[in-house]
Hints:
Helix 4 (90-107) runs antiparallel to helix 6. Strand 6 and strand 7 form a beta hairpin. It contains six helices and seven strands, in the order H-H-E-H-E-E-H-E-E-H-H-E-E. By secondary structure, it is α+β, with helices and mostly antiparallel strands. Residues 199-216 have low confidence and may be disordered. The protein has helices at 2-18, 21-48, 59-72, 90-107, 137-143, 162-172; strands at 56-58, 77-81, 87-89, 112-118, 124-130, 176-181, 187-193.
Amino acid sequence: SHDLRTPLARLRLRIETQCSPEVADAAQAELGAVEHIVAQFLAYVQGNTGTASGRPASAVELLRSAVQGCAERGQPVALELLAPDALVPSVGLQRVLTNLLDNAQAYGRAPFTLAWSVDPLGQHQITVWDHGPGLSPGQFAQAREPFVRLSTDADIGHCGLGLAIVAQIAQRWGGQLHCGHDSVDRFGVWVVWPPAAAPSANPELAPGEGSVPIRR
């Protein structure tokens, strides 16, 4: 990680301090894409070694933070909170959210919705919905393979690891990655996993605390 990121940090500093504003603005986008690819490679390697799940954190707070980050980048995402809060591995869930949202915004169509819910078996579920055409089962199977890109239309910085990382994390949690359309023809990609994969209650919360509204 250090060997990859240190030269990028030096390059960013040189761009910011030694280039004209016009050149710097153009170069920042390219550099950001390279940094994103490096981060994806590192996440995939760490997933293969079973590391970097992170400390337990509030799922609802992580979802709210992800939605706020999208809004700050001018990419609004609605938030649906359909289940009580729970503790989840922080780094792992952040990677799931980042990759699902990035994929939806790169390949799908607005409006976008991020939902936290419980599936019929009582498993935790995170879903990202969009209004694009979605993927067939065969395409979805391909997209879960590492380094596979089904489209060249997405922004630079996509290296075909997004869904592979999410599938990797879901498997490590004893869960699964799925996709499909709902009754109003939204396309969704979701991760489900059993509560036993992470602490199910926050010891710092008193009984009855930590619940969230049914819909937001």
